Fructose-bisphosphate aldolase (Acidithiobacillus ferrooxidans), 394 residues
Amino acid sequence: MPLVHMKDLLSHAYAHGYAVGAFDVVSLEFVEGVMAAAERSRAPVILSLAESHLEHYDFELLMSGVEAAARRSAVPVALHFDRGANLEAAVRAIRLGCNGVMVDASQSTFSDNLTHTKTVVDMAHACGVPVEGDLGYIPDAADINPQGGYPATAPYTTVAEAKGFVERTGVDFLVVSIRAEQSCPNSKAKLDIQRLRSINQALGIPLAIHCRTRLDDDQFRRLIVHGVAKINYFTALAEAANAAISARAKSAPGAGYLDLVQGVGAAISAEAERCMRVWGAAGRAAEVLACCRPWASVEHLIIHNVIGISEKEVTAMMIEGQQALSTIPGVRSVITGKAMRERAQYRYCWQVRFAAPEVINSYHEHPDYVAFTNRRFRPVADREISIDYAMESL
């Protein structure tokens, strides 16, 4: 139940003047630490998986744990796929359970960024999934030149580009880059709040930032006042994990792996909870749950008989159907089966899981579905019954 629509969650944050943390998770220690913080502080939270980290873990395996953590939570949770490489990556993320996506084309030209993002929006919205767009970035330490400051070509977000980008792509949220200048990696960032204020007034949608620079509590609050409702956060969590491992290694020379990482979850949890309280999300869980739609999958069930083909041909048809239908955006799985009793009233079944109710229409309109059903299924199907069930977990 507490897995909720990400758009509802961020719309509430935007309307009520607080920000939700989108914490990048790279292991179960991160998942458990962030969720423990959210439970303690009664805060809504976004668990985020970034494509840039996929070399460090198996996306499908970690997503299983992330989705399980969200569904058993007592606080509202959304699952976000961050900085995807392309449309195919976003489709896969939705299939594996993400209910918010972002494909990062911010390093491309404005025109290419717009085109790529619009393609993702069209696909994701047909699946009921909101999309985050990205214009520019807040530089990190690697962008600082040896003489101090950032390159003059750094692509900071302009009001005109932001307005045109949102209107032409239909994104639900936008990552913005406001001027952040640092003379060295450890100095405090200087933010162009006037730029942010103008962007917020022009757009009126939840804004997001990638937090990779040093910001103090007051700076976070000023960002939130001017429309930032989503803060993408990883660097400080990783630093907390590193510090916990280093401290353990010093205090227990020769410690094994399990001993070294035993404090990682607690360190991550403490930093995540600090953020939730500073950003104003703490204590908001109940009111968010009251106004957010639960994110629930749909089971599309078909039972039928066949006429005019052999059992071997039925098997071949089902295998072909699984391969064709499982790649349609918003389809999470395709399972086929045969009745255990030969005299059963209906001999064959299909169980197709949709990510959300919106997929029902887009699935039946998809060219792959139309081609398979018209060419292979309908000519042989007999007494077909099709039912869609909204799935709810206790």
